[in-house]
Amino acid sequence: LRLGHVPTIVVSSAKAAELFLKEHDAVFATRPITQASVYLSYGAKGVAFGQYGEYWRRMRKMCNLHLLTLAKVTSFEGLRRAEVEAAVQRLVDAAAAREVVDVGERVGELIEEIVFKMVIGKGKEEDKRYDLKGVVEEAVILAGAFNLA
């Protein structure tokens, strides 16, 4: 079966799916290269969009060894705690003023502020050059767009 120019296999039984996923996993572990992956990930070379292989395995290992270690995650515990406490206080203040609050929006703002401070070292109010939330929303739309190429 082909979807545009992309050869596609449709598996309709659990036994066949198990065979594909367990016996031939390396063959099907790669991701398709899309226009979005090329633009969002330096020519589809990042961990999220990269092709499965030696380069991708080394990238994943570097992320696990340098970015996702317990020590690195723990080093931001104070920052996360302070931001969550501030967000909860803003919710308490809004409740005391009997204001309607969009909790989903507030959680998004909390995550954005934490990421800003972890990556850039400043809050979004201190450095307005970046629209992190807008960039992430656009990336999600682009990455999810159907592409037959």
Automatic annotation (TrEMBL):
InterPro entries: Cyt_P450 (IPR001128), Cyt_P450_sf (IPR036396). One of its GO terms (molecular function) is heme binding. It is found in: Membrane. One of its GO terms (cellular component) is membrane. The keyword Iron applies. Keywords: Heme, Iron, Membrane, Metal-binding, Monooxygenase, Oxidoreductase. Its cofactor is heme. Belongs to the cytochrome P450 family. This is Costunolide synthase. The lineage of its organism: Eukaryota, Viridiplantae, Streptophyta, Embryophyta, Tracheophyta.
